[in-house]
Task: structure prediction
Amino acid sequence: MPAMKTRSDAWELLNKYTKNQNLIKHGLAVEVAMRLYARKFQGDEDVWGIVGLLHDFDYEKYPTLEEHPYKGQEILEAEGFSEEIRRGIMAHAPHTETPRETMMHKAIFAVDELSGFIVAVTLIRPTKKIADVDIQSVLKKMKQKGFARGVSREDIMQGAQELGISLEEHIANVLEALQGVAGELGL
Result:
């Protein structure tokens, strides 16, 4: 049986396939939020974190719905990443129709869109500092259809519902996680 892949292995793979620094930072953001939810739901922090870090690692090279995250699955399998990690990554993308059977699957779906949305809210602040973002500012921007149009508000709300928490609590959790790595995110 091959050894468990580490965060270091995941980081190396992410950087091999992703050159866009914003996409790398998105992986970091989703990783820290996944680790927070792993603690809340008694999951394996390392596994959940790797799922978050690698969920979009193939996106830069394979950006279409026909390719992402399917090509990534082939790469992850060849690299020796576990089926648990591969299935977790599939669960983040609604178009794969992968059932979200575990709390990890629900968390990756819930965290992906929201983390990007919180970063967008941060970047329009005069200070561009995530420390200046609060739950109310995120909720206010969610109501503005023209803001961050590519982010699915429905997926964010459905994600919170699947986790069994309120939207406000979900925003607070992800915001807290991202604020904890503000320096790494450049925010």
In short: The chain has one domain: 7-182. The first helix runs from residue 7 to 17. The two ends are 41 Å apart (CA to CA).
